[in-house]
Amino acid sequence: MLPWLALGAFILAALAIDLVVGARRPASHRAHSLRRALVWSIVWTAIGAGFAAVLYAFDGREAAESYLAGFLIEKSLSLDNLFVFAVLFTFLAVPEDDRRRVLLYGVGGAIVLRGLFILAGAAALDAFAFMPYVLGGLLAFTALKIARHGGEQVDPERTLAMRVLRRLAPGATPAASALVMVAVFDLMFAIDSIPAIFAVTRDTFVVFAANAFSLLGMVSLFFLLEGMMERFRHLHFGLAAILGWVAAKLLLEDVWHPPIALTLAVIAGALATAALTSVLAERRDRARRARPVSYGA
Fold first, then answer.
1. How would DSSP label each residue in 74-129?
2. Within 10 A of 31 (CB to CB), how many other CB atoms are there?
3. pTM of the full predicted structure?
4. CA 146 to chain CA centroid, nearest Å
5. Which whole-number Å values give the CA distances from 275 to 39, 200, 269, in the listed order?
6. Staple partner for 27: which of 33, 220, 240, 270, CB 3.0–4.6 Å?
7. pLDDT of 174-185, one tens digit each?
């Protein structure tokens, strides 16, 4: 119980710090604002990754490696989620200061929601022997869906949640509408991400810690990535590869138990490949646009 209380207290304190940092008005110069977002994104990511050392000291290498793999999976999935939020905020014309508050409240709600999902998922895995195959199938379907359609932008107007919201609260402010939609998308993202980390470990403390730490610093990371969606055009292929890998782990767990180190290598390799191909594609497009147009006689 003490580790849970200590983790909960730390997460609450971190959210309070994130609230103070995120509530500040952005610097007048955009470069200063981006620099601050970059610094805080690095700080929160380093803190999240550093928790693996704490687990290593108190619970051994296996727990530390499982946490680190889960943290990387959840952090990489959160990047895709942030791009969806960027489209949503632009569609609803949410002011920048309101975006910060909506994101922070959304992160707090997501931590609570995922905690409940983790407890329910752990209980289901313990009670039903077939659940790993159900979760593996869900992840395989999600991987295929992301690979085929992950590069397409979400149209909030076409979602069921937005149509219901328009009908029930036609006069809702952009910030209120965004908060409701962020909560809905958080629910959808949790359904995809929670099975992924259960493929790595069934330790509920490690699963929750990886989820909670991956969500910290989302406000800063959002503003860092908001204008860079085109530069990560192949991210969905990397995410699909990661989810496909963990789906295979679940579906084949009775006959195949790959080491955690191999999972870490697959995650790092998939993300690095997606980033590299995205950069090369952007450079190719820039070169094509800069090429002088020749007109025939």
1. HHHHHHHHHHHHHHHHHHHT--HHHHHHHHHHHHHHHHHHHHHHHHHHHHHHHH-T
2. 8
3. 0.78
4. 14
5. 20, 24, 10
6. 33
7. 888 888 888 877
